[in-house]
Design brief:
Arc Repressor Mutant, subunit A; five-stranded parallel beta sheet; 5 strands; Rossmann fold
Length: 311
């Protein structure tokens, strides 16, 4: 077996039986958890029998589940890991850069493996045809929502973002059939976002979520796009936010193609509007930034140490 076991599982999903596909999805949803589980735990999480898990492992050349776990653990060790698992005391500047970038690369690779093209196609169509789009997101997840809104505006589409809990409930309650509510959460357990999504469903609106699988928010969605892991600690959610932004960019790229005939006539007006704003804006003055004292200055080839803030 190879260290690219997750890629092999992802590529072979169509060849597996229905029950074995459940095992594959459970492994891909959270590889680190699968590497820690025993066969009974994985079978329970995948809602299959233990012999099904055994057959799944044999399909990929393993003698049994313990053998499959060893290969899976080796693959996770070789792949880029998340930020909080790698950055540590004694790291140099280059180490921190490589580990943070590696964490983001790992999150994007997880995103690619877990993409369901059928769900993604339906999501692109729903966004393309929505009469009104409401995005519910709070905290750092709102950053991905803001970029999503600006890109939609560039295509002549209107999108509203709400973060205030009360405003979320009111806005979601006003949605009707033909409208779309998008819930974004790095954990999938944000109570305010879940409450708003639940309220939008009562009015007949379509619901699309961007969150980890097997979470409260994912269960509320008509279409749930898998992004991140619910078991990630807070310090690792940054990688999931990059994956969420990438996932929204994929949807936007599809929407731009679906609405090309509508967007094309609008482009001259949109460009003129942006040009008018640019011409009226004042030039920003470059602020002078004082250099830190050379005493104790950060050096790229030495471990990063804490500053003495009592000086």
């Amino acid at each position: 077996m190879q260290t690219g076991i997750l890629d092999r599982v992802s590529a072979a999903v169509a060849e597996l039986s229905k029950s074995e596909r459940r095992v594959a999805q459970a492994v891909l949803d959270d590889p680190a958890l699968a590497a820690r589980e025993n066969i009974a735990d994985l079978a329970r999480r995948a809602k299959v029998s233990q012999p099904t898990v055994f057959r799944f492992c044999r399909h990929f050349g393993a003698e049994g589940f313990p053998d499959f776990k060893l290969t899976l653990s080796a693959a996770l060790t070789d792949e880029p890991q998340h930020l909080a698992k790698q950055v540590s005391a004694g790291d140099r500047v280059g180490d921190v850069a490589r580990k943070v970038i590696g964490g983001i690369q790992g999150a994007l690779k997880d995103l690619e493996r877990g993409l369901d093209e059928n769900v993604l196609a339906r999501a692109i169509d729903i966004v393309s045809q929505a009469r009104r789009i409401l995005v519910c997101a709070q905290g750092h997840s709102a950053a991905a929502a803001l970029d999503f809104r600006s890109r939609l505006a560039a295509m002549g589409m209107s999108c509203e973002i709400v973060s205030d809990p009360v405003q979320m409930l009111l806005s979601a309650a006003a949605l009707r059939q033909g409208d779309l509510c998008i819930g974004i959460s790095s954990t999938g357990e944000n109570r305010d976002v879940c409450a708003a999504v639940r309220g939008s469903r009562e009015g007949g609106a379509s619901v699309l979520t961007v969150c980890p699988p097997e979470t409260t928010l994912a269960a509320l969605a008509v279409l749930a796009l898998r992004c991140g892991f619910k078991s990630d600690p807070d310090d690792e959610l940054m990688c999931g936010r990059f994956a969420a932004m990438a996932l929204l960019q994929i949807i936007l790229a599809g929407v731009s193609l679906r609405r090309a005939d509508l967007v094309r006539p609008l482009r001259p007006r949109l460009k003129a509007a942006v040009a008018a704003v640019s011409e009226g804006a004042q030039s920003a003055k470059t602020a002078e930034v004082s250099s830190p004292s050379q005493s104790g200055a950060l050096k790229p080839d030495e471990p990063i140490t804490a500053l003495d803030w009592t000086l």
